[in-house]
């Protein structure tokens, strides 16, 4: 029997991507989220979610405002720590596993090489600390848990770096972009496919102890924020969309409330070894994402 996927967090990038990919793959999925379900306060899953009879719960809801979190520690922890624990407890009560999404910002970036899951986390800011606390809350609440640390998520949906860059290129010819933070950009649609394949594997094989714990799940390859913007501008220019020159600057020239890791590249070997999943190169996702955004843009511009 195939999986039935209950997704928490219906309007976010990853939740929207899960809805799209589940429909394309004919996997029954139900999304619930605010305003009906607030994970910071919910006591139990709503009746319709229980009636859906999921085989797995995916928590794609999170407080994701990295800089704002520095001033809103309680709000960030209410969702990313306590809320994550509530979702995992609800999955355990239903008797099904939970797939929880976490972040590369649990690392401090001091390691010169890509991170592996056994490297000690050491978050630099409130957001990363709240997500790390959430991982622990999930592990406490649900024995059957898969925690996916992903990174630098972009998509045609919601708010993200690629969309922001294209919007800025509408009015600017040159942009100064940070070029000394290295990471693993991840296309929400590729991540959604990876999540659904994990759900399928678990449905096929039943729960296995080797599925438990933390996995890195990011697109293959690495770049800087400038590298990501440059690729997005090139893809957009090829389609006649907005483009700009991307000039490199150091992090010190772009101060933000929250400190970011200089290196948060993720080694995704455990995901491949355990589930047979390797996400495609990040720039393939950029091309697809920009293609969708520029086409949409053109459609909107045409009277
Ligand atoms: N974005 C990134 O670059 C990035 C990088 C690494 C890891 N991640 C992780 O990936 C996951 C998905 O991120 P994303 O990019 O899809 O985030 P997103 O686009 O910001 O969406 C977050 C979603 O969470 C929902 N949410 C927030 N608080 C909630 C609450 N109390 N109850 C119910 N829903 C709530 C939001 O609902 P509203 O629309 O109502 O606010 C929104 O639908 C998160 O766990 C995030 O930490 C993201």
Automatic annotation (TrEMBL):
Pfam families: RmlD_sub_bind. Its cofactor is Mg(2+). Residues 4-292 form the RmlD-like substrate binding domain. InterPro entries: dTDP_dehydrorham_reduct (IPR005913), NAD(P)-bd_dom_sf (IPR036291), RmlD-like-bd (IPR029903). Binds 1 Mg(2+) ion per monomer. Gene3D superfamilies: NAD(P)-binding Rossmann-like Domain (3.40.50.720), UDP-galactose 4-epimerase, domain 1 (3.90.25.10). It catalyses: dTDP-beta-L-rhamnose + NADP(+) = dTDP-4-dehydro-beta-L-rhamnose + NADPH + H(+). It comes from the Bacteria. The keyword Ribonucleoprotein does not apply. NCBIfam families: rmlD. Catalyzes the reduction of dTDP-6-deoxy-L-lyxo-4-hexulose to yield dTDP-L-rhamnose. PANTHER family: DTDP-4-DEHYDRORHAMNOSE REDUCTASE, METHIONINE ADENOSYLTRANSFERASE 2 SUBUNIT BETA. This is dTDP-4-dehydrorhamnose reductase. It comes from Rhodobium gokarnense.
């Amino acid at each position: 029997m195939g999986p039935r996927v209950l997704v928490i967090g219906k309007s976010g990038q990853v939740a929207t991507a899960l809805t799209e990919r589940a429909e394309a793959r004919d996997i029954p999925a139900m999304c619930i989220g605010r305003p009906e379900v607030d994970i910071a306060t919910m006591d139990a899953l709503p009746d319709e979610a229980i009636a859906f009879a999921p085989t797995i719960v995916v928590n794609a809801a999170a407080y994701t405002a990295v800089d704002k979190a520095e001033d809103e520690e309680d709000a960030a922890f209410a969702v990313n720590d306590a809320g994550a624990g509530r979702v995992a407890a609800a999955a355990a009560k239903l008797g099904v596993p939970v797939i929880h999404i976490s972040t590369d910002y649990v690392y401090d970036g001091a390691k010169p090489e890509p991170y592996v899951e056994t490297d000690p986390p050491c978050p630099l800011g409130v957001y990363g600390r709240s997500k790390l606390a959430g991982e622990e809350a999930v592990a406490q609440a649900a024995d059957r848990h898969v925690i996916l640390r992903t990174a630098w998520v972009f998509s045609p949906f919601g708010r993200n770096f690629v969309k922001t860059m294209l919007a800025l290129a509408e009015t600017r010819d040159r942009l100064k972009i940070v070029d000394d933070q290295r990471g693993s950009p991840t296309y929400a649609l590729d991540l959604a496919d990876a999540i659904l394949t994990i759900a399928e594997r678990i449905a096929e094989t039943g729960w296995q102890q080797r599925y438990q714990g933390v996995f890195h799940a990011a697109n293959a390859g690495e770049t800087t924020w400038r590298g990501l913007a440059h690729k997005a501008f090139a893809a957009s220019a090829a389609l006649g969309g907005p483009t700009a020159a991307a000039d490199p600057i150091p992090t010190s020239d772009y101060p933000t409330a929250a400190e970011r890791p200089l290196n948060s590249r993720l080694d995704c070997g455990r995901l491949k070894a355990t589930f047979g999943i390797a996400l495609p190169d990040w720039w393939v996702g950029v091309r697809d994402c920009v293609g969708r955004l520029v086409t949409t843009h053109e459609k909107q511009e045409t009277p």
